[in-house]
DNA sequence: CCATGGTGTCATTTT
DNA sequence: CCAAAATGACACCAT
């Protein structure tokens, strides 16, 4: 028959086995050793405050946070090994009631003190009622219950409600917390290996690391148990040893849960570890006004991200709103939306818009008249803003500045009669040096080129550009201002057009921006080859594709960054939670040790109060000590001998440890 | 007016 | 070696 597990059991770090056989009575001390099948972290480790157990969580507690069967098998194996106790001292229970029986002058206890074996009393008295105040079992309560009382254990999302933020945002935050929940919780194995050791590791390495961590922890426990074994399984020891060990064991044993084991960076959050508000701020600092909700879309198994994904999909038709008419397109979704038709029908509603349209048409005409590309001409109407969207040729310009003359020669191919003007304009910066475009020009038939000319001349508008106005530096009518004017005067749909979309529209690019960006490489190249496009159009299409790809890449990059930040935040939360659990465990161990010390002291005093020497005088406990030998006898030994024996035992234990 | 965060873009590096 | 992706840095804009 086994006594209930002491309330402090579950520490797993202080393995103090005391076999005190006094007159046949056996007092077994087994502190903080988790019983087979349980892990102290499973009992003590509370849930992460930002991870309230919800039904929507993809990982329930029964699923072990998604632990793999291999890991569960390893955990079971380790527990079985621990349960066997090999080669450690077999685990025993604290038979506090025995101490009580001795202290209260129980007859069996007295009899046991005299040296007769009465180990059966342990079994017979196992169900005796424990002593009221000092019995640790009476103070036993579930660590989870402790956790429930801990205000810090409240879900952060609930606390956030008090932060004055809307419930919807709180829901989002909660979803975010759950979003990052499984990503690290399922990586936390049952042996409590810190998640931060593995959270950023590839999943394939997790198992190996898990094995290493398990071995590591088993080794730590082995050392702890061996130390206890070396101290206590010697041929003999005294109660003084027990006192000394109890005095030294807390610090020693608690090294395993020392706060120094927490990674150093946690020290920065040490002060606020007891404050749930800290968790709020941590999450809040990242979640506040973050418009990167799409970032969550990358992570699977997340309701929040799935919701956003659905929202994004619902908005996708709107994203295709800027698709242009292309009869050759086989993509149905790229058809011309009515909104765009409406927008085109509204061209006369705004004089400014007409002016801008005329300007662009004039630019096209200028390009024809001067042999200068419309893009270059259009640059004359903007400031040299690298962010203008019209600076797409900036890289080419910088890389081919020395070839400006050749570029102008190329431009002469369009209109050889204006070479001098080409030079003049080229000095402004209107170079068009990309050689690949000329390859398109080479295989293009002249008739097609003239068709392009006719097409552009068809939009002829009288537009005269003064040479002085061509200086971009002096041009105050910048692109951004133009965009502002356009966006300010047009409807919302027009305002949502990006610069590339506007330019593509102005240059009559027969493809939508989405098409250009999302099209596969082969399709893109074949599309360029199939269509007769001007160099400007090809250049713009390529730039649109490059910018679009890069835009998506930048978005993905930022999403990854945000995910990393969230993951780190989650790691911080986990480590804080573990730190709190370890602190509670340490406090419980200290309390248990104190109780044990007191009980042992009482027992010691009681034993000596009953002992008499040969003359019938009481034995002074300050001069003598009780020493237990393996043959079951208890000797009263002068303390001088005990101290010398302790030194020998300590030396022997040290030698065995060094082996 | 300033601070902050989101976003687009370019240049460069990495894959 | 080249193309695409990734990323740092910067500028602009909205709040």
Kindly provide the radius of gyration, computed on alpha-carbon positions and rounded to a whole number of angstroms.
41 Å
Regions with little confidence, pLDDT below 50 for 5+ residues: 1-243, 245-495
End-to-end Cα distance: 38 Å
Tertiary shape: rod-shaped
**Total beta strands:** 5
Largest sheet properties = 3 strands, antiparallel
Bin the strand percentage: under 5%
Describe the strand arrangement of the main beta sheet, using strand numbers: 3-4-5
Continuous helix count: 29
Mean pLDDT: 47
Q: Residue share in helices?
A: 40-55%
Structure, described:
The protein has 659 residues and is mainly α. Among the domains are: 17-48 and 76-262 and 578-658, no CATH class; 350-434 and 463-490, no CATH class. Helices cover 55% and strands 4% of the residues. It has 29 helices and five strands. Strands 3-4-5 form a three-stranded antiparallel β-sheet. Helix 12 runs antiparallel to helix 28. The chain is rod-shaped, with a radius of gyration of 41 Å. The structure holds a DNA duplex (15 and 15 nucleotides).
Give the helix/strand layout:
Blueprint: E1 17-22, E2 25-30, H1 40-44, H2 69-84, H3 96-103, H4 107-113, H5 120-124, H6 143-149, H7 156-160, H8 167-179, H9 181-185, H10 203-232, E3 236-238, H11 239-253, H12 276-287, H13 303-314, H14 316-319, H15 338-345, H16 351-370, H17 374-379, H18 394-399, H19 404-414, H20 419-428, H21 435-443, H22 446-458, H23 479-489, H24 492-495, H25 499-506, H26 513-518, H27 521-530, H28 535-610, E4 624-629, E5 634-638, H29 639-658
Antiparallel strand pairs: 1-2, 3-4, 4-5
Helix pairs in contact: 2-10, 3-4, 3-28, 10-29, 11-28, 12-28, 19-20, 21-28
The chain binds a DNA duplex (15 and 15 nucleotides) through residues 288-292, 385-387, 389, 391-392, 394-395, 480, 498-499, 521, 546-547, 549-558, 560-561.
Keywords: Activator, DNA-binding, Nucleus, Signal, Transcription, Transcription regulation
Family: Belongs to the bZIP family. CNC subfamily.
Pfam families: bZIP_Maf
């Amino acid at each position: 028959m086994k006594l209930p597990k002491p309330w402090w059991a579950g520490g797993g770090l202080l393995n103090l086995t005391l076999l005190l056989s006094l007159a046949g009575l056996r007092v077994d001390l087994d502190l903080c050793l988790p019983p087979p099948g349980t892990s102290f972290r499973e009992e003590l480790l509370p849930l992460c405050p930002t991870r309230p157990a919800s039904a929507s969580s993809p990982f329930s507690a029964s699923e072990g946070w998604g632990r793999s069967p291999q890991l569960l098998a390893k955990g079971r194996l380790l527990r079985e090994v621990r349960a066997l106790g090999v080669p450690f001292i077999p685990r025993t229970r604290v038979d506090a009631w025995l101490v009580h029986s001795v202290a209260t002058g129980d007859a069996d206890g007295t009899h046991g003190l005299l040296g007769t074996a009465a180990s059966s009393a342990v079994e017979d008295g196992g169900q005796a009622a424990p002593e009221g105040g000092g019995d640790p079992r009476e103070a036993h309560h579930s660590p989870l219950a402790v956790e429930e009382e801990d205000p810090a254990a409240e879900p952060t999302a609930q606390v956030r409600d008090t932060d004055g933020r809307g419930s919807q945002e709180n829901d989002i935050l909660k979803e975010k917390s759950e979003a990052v929940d499984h990503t690290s919780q399922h990586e936390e194995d049952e042996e409590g290996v810190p998640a931060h050791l593995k959270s950023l590791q590839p999943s394939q390495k997790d198992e190996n690391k898990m094995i290493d961590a398990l071995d590591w922890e088993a080794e730590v426990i082995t050392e702890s148990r061996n130390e206890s074994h070396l101290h206590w399984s010697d041929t003999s020891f005294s109660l003084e040893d027990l006192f000394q060990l109890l005095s030294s064991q807390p610090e020693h044993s608690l090294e395993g849960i020392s706060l120094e084991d927490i990674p150093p960076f946690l020290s920065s959050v040490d002060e606020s570890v007891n404050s749930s508000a800290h968790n709020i701020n941590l999450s809040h600092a990242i979640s506040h006004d973050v418009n990167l909700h799409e970032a969550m879309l990358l992570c699977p198994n997340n309701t929040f991200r799935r919701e956003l994904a659905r929202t994004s999909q619902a908005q996708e038709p709107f994203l295709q709103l800027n698709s242009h008419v292309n009869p050759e397109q086989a993509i149905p979704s790229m058809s011309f939306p009515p909104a765009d038709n409406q927008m085109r029908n509204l061209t006369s509603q705004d004089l400014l818009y007409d002016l801008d349209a005329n300007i662009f048409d004039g630019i096209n005409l200028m390009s024809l008249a001067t042999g200068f590309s419309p893009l270059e001409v259009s640059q004359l109407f903007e400031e040299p803003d690298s962010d203008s969207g019209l600076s797409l040729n900036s890289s080419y310009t910088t890389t081919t500045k020395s070839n400006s003359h050749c570029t102008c020669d190329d431009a002469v191919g369009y209109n050889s009669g204006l070479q001098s003007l080409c030079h003049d304009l080229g000095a402004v910066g209107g170079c068009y040096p990309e050689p690949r475009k000329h390859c398109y020009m080479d295989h293009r038939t002249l008739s097609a080129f003239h068709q392009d000319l006719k097409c552009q001349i068809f939009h002829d508008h009288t537009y005269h550009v003064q040479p002085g106005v061509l200086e971009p530096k002096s041009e105050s009518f910048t692109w951004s201002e133009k965009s502002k004017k356009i966006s300010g005067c047009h409807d919302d749909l027009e305002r949502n057009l990006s610069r590339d979309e506007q330019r593509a529209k102005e240059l009559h690019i027969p493809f939508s921006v989405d098409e250009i960006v999302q099209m596969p490489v082969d399709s893109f190249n074949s599309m360029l080859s199939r269509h007769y496009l001007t160099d400007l159009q090809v250049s713009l299409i390529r730039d649109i594709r490059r910018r679009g790809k890069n835009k998506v890449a930048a978005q993905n990059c930022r999403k990854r960054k945000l995910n990393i930040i969230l993951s780190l935040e989650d790691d911080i939360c986990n480590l804080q939670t573990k730190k709190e659990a370890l602190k509670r465990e340490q406090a419980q161990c200290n309390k248990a040790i104190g109780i044990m010390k007191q009980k042992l002291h009482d027992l010691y005093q009681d034993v000596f109060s009953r002992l008499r020497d040969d003359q019938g005088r009481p034995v002074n406990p300050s001069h003598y000590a009780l020493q237990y030998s393996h043959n079951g006898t208890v000797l009263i030994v002068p303390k001088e001998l005990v101290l010398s024996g302790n030194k020998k035992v300590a030396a022997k234990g040290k030698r065995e440890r060094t082996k």
